[in-house]
Amino acid sequence: MGLGGTAKKLQKVTDMAEDVYTRLNDLRDQVVEMRETTQETSDRVDRLEKEAAEMRALLEALAEREDIDVERVTADAHISEAERSTAADAPGETSEADDASESDTVEETESEI
After folding, report:
1. Could you give the dihedral angle defined by the CA atoms of residues 52, 55, 57 and 59, in that order, rounded to the nearest 10 degrees?
2. Which of 84, 80, 56 lies closest to 70, judged by CA?
3. Are 82 and 98 in contact, with CB atoms under 8 Å apart?
4. Who's near 3: CB < 8 A, 6+ residues apart?
5. pLDDT tens, residue by residue, 62-87
6. Residue 98: closest CA among 86, 111, 107
7. Among 3, 20, 64, 81, fewest CB within 10 Å belongs to which?
8. Binned average pLDDT, 10 residues per bin, the chain of 113 residues
9. Domain range list for the chain
10. SS3 category, 23
11. Are 70 and 60 in contact (CB under 8 A)?
């Protein structure tokens, strides 16, 4: 093999190295951007958690002033959500809770009339 063959191989290796270097720089830029995005997201989550805690404290204070049992309301909301989730999983079927809820609504409406 002559010098021409060696030069071609060296050029090929050089081209491959430049390609790897370019890809590495692109990857480095992506990592830096991802770190910045992650930090921004973390800051945003921290701020939202703080705001949610403040809102919860305000709601609890208002509920206490109005004599509302926050734990009962929260439990009822969770139960309702679980019932809706169960009903959504089995379309076309009504549960006993749905039937009871519907009959309660009918009774309330009839008593208002």
Report:
1. -130
2. 56
3. no
4. none
5. 999 999 998 999 999 999 999 998 88
6. 86
7. 3
8. 79 95 98 98 98 95 92 92 87 54 47 41
9. 3-90
10. helix
11. yes
